[in-house]
Design a protein that fits this description.
By secondary structure, the chain is mainly α. Among the domains are: about 70 residues; about 35 residues. It has three helices and no strands. It is rod-shaped and about 95 Å long. It starts with 5 loop residues before the first helix and ends in a 9-residue tail after the last helix. About 20% of the residues have low confidence. This is WASH complex subunit 3. It comes from Timema monikensis. InterPro entries: WASHC3.
């Protein structure tokens, strides 16, 4: 069998290279167009999310006083930063010693909450999650956010 003529071989190789390069150029252009379209959609969604967050924050700050039970929640603003205080552990009830003679020293004292003990909903660490629930954020979403931040989601119950 005679070998393919050199000019014909070069023509085949040139044709293969031009069709391959044309295909790769068309493919890369198509992918680039799709990526630009996705980037544009992502930028639109990001802008819409920023606007929505601003509206929700403004709405939340303006409407916080109208929500029952949250009138006394501290709202964190640049002028009024939140105070981080860990919740105080519950104190065990006092135990009276067992004696036959009642004495005034052994009477159990009523377990009144001291001013240092606060409700968990007033704790700055948890207050924003309680606000999220009262504003209407789904409970599972709030619990997942609490779990992601290392807090106990069972507190919402």
């Amino acid at each position: 069998i005679e070998p393919i003529h050199q000019k014909r071989l070069i023509a085949f190789i040139n044709h293969f290279l031009t069709t391959t390069v044309t295909f790769l150029n068309t493919f890369s252009h198509s992918v680039e167009t799709r990526l630009e379209k996705c980037e544009g959609q992502l930028q639109k969604m990001d802008a819409a999310l920023c606007i929505l967050e601003a509206k929700v924050t403004t709405y939340d700050l303006l409407q916080l006083n109208s929500i029952a039970g949250l009138e006394d929640v501290l709202v964190a603003t640049p002028e009024n930063p939140p105070k981080v205080t860990p919740p105080s552990p519950p104190s065990p009830p006092p135990v009276a010693p067992v004696t036959d003679v009642p004495s005034s020293a052994s009477e159990p004292q009523p377990n009144n909450a001291t001013p240092t003990q606060t409700k968990i909903s007033r704790d700055p660490q948890y207050s924003r999650f309680f606000r999220m629930v009262t504003v209407g954020v789904p409970l599972q979403a709030v619990k997942q956010k609490m779990h992601m931040e290392g807090l106990d989601p069972g507190v919402l119950e």
